[in-house]
Amino acid sequence: MKNVRKLGLMTILFWMFLSVQAFAADLEPPMISLEKEQRVFTSGEVISFHVKNPEELKIVLVNEHGQRKLLDGETYTVTDWDLDGNYQAEFYQADISKPVVTVEDLFEVKQLEEVAKDETAPSLKMIEITHDEDVLPTSVLYASAELDDAESGVKQAILLVHSKSNESEMELIRNNYTGEFDAEIPLEKFQLGEELTFQLQLVDFAENEITLDLENTIQLYEPKAPVLSYDGSDITNVQKKIGQVGNRIELTLDKYTTEFPELETENGKTIPLLWQKTATEWKGSLALTTELSGEIIHIQEMNQYMLVRATSEPFGDIQLINNSILTGTIHPDFTFISNLYVEVNGQNFPIKRTDNSFTSAEITTTGKITLHWTDWDGQVFSKQMNQEIKPVIEMPDKETIAPPSVIPKEKESLLTSPDPKPSVESHENTPKKQEKKETSTKNKSSSIPFWIPALMIIGVIIFSGNRAMK
C-alpha cells in the first residue's frame, strides 16, 4: 500500500515537472535580429529582421536621439529623415509603459548623401480631454492626442492650460503601444469656478514648432454658496436678524465642503450644529434655546448676526404718574432698542433710560399715548398704550342769582338818567368762565334800580302836601 502511494506521488511530481518545462518553453522571450550581416544602412535601404514575437507585442525602433518608428512586419525602409546613430528594438505590451524586452545595438543608420530637409510641422489628428463629472482643484485631467508627423516624427508635445488666475503646462508622453500621446494634468494651481482653455505645442525632430489653439474648454466646479435660513426663510443677505426661542436656524453648505463652522456668541462660546449630508449638500441645524435668550450669535466666518429673544413684548409694568409722566421697564431681551420716545396728540416727548427702566419727560398735552422705538436690527416700531392723558376739569365758583330786573315805563324813564354803556372786553379770547363771573357781578350791583328811591321820595313829598292842605 505504501509503495502504491509512493508511486502515485512520483507520478504527480513527474507531470508537474513536465508542465513547468512546457510553460517555461512557452514563456521564451521575444527576440529580433538582422537577417543579414550588414549593420550600417542609409536612406532608401531595406532592413530585414528575423522576429520571434509569439505574444504579438508592439516593436518600436528607437535611435539615440529619441526618434521612434513602429516596425510593422519584418522589414523597415530607412528614410531621409532617420537620424544618424545606433538603433535598438523595444517590445511593448498593452498597459505597460516600459518595454518588456529591449534589444540594443540592432543596427546603425548613416546618411551618406545630403537628404531632404523636413520643413513640415507636426499636426493634430484628435485630442480628448476627460475628467470627473465635477472638476475640482484636487481633480486630474486626462489628455490623449493622436499626432501626425510622417517625416521626422513628433519630438515633443506640451499641453498648455490657461485660466484667469493661473496657467500650467504638462508634457504629453508617447504611449508606445498605441502610438498616442497621453498625460495627466493636476489642477491644484486653479480655483473653483474658473474656466480652463487649452493650447497644444508640438515640436518635431527637425525642430519645426507649432502651437495650436484647442476648442476644448472645461469649467471647474462652482461650489454652492452658503445659505443661512431661519424658520424656513432665507436670511443669507440679512446682516441683523431677530430670532425667537424655539425656532431653528439652518446652514446649507456645498457637498464638497471640508470645514464645518460652529455657532458662536459674543463672549466666545461655541455651539456645534447638527450636520447631515445629502447627495447634493451638507445641512447643519440648531434650535434656539432659552439659554441663548438675550445673546447675539453668529456663524463662524459669516457676517450675519442674530439677537435671540424669548418674548416678543418689549415693555413691562408701564404706569402713568400724575396724568403727565410715563414710566415703565424694558425686558432684558430688548436692551438693545434705541430712540425710545412718547407721542401724544402729535407731539413727541423724550424718554430717559436707566438700566432697564425708563421715564418720560412731562407730557403737556392730552390724548392717547404711543411709544416709538428703533429695534436692534434697524426696524422702527410703535405701540399704542392703554394709558391716556386726560384733560383736567376745574369746578366753577359759586354765584349769587339776582332777581329779575324791573323795566320802567316810558314816563318813569324821563325821571331817570340813562344806563351807562357796558364796557367792551379788551381781550377777545377771555374764557367763558370769566365772562360769566363778570356778568354775575354786574347783576349784583344793579339788582335795585336807581330810580326807585327817587320815586319813593317824590311820593313822600306828595303825601305830605295833601295832608297839609287838609
UniProtKB/TrEMBL annotation:
Residues 422-441 have a biased composition (Basic and acidic residues). Residues 1-24 form the signal peptide. It comes from the Bacteria. The chain crosses the membrane at residues 448-465. Keywords: Membrane, Signal, Transmembrane, Transmembrane helix. Residues 411-446 are annotated as: Disordered. This is Cell surface protein.
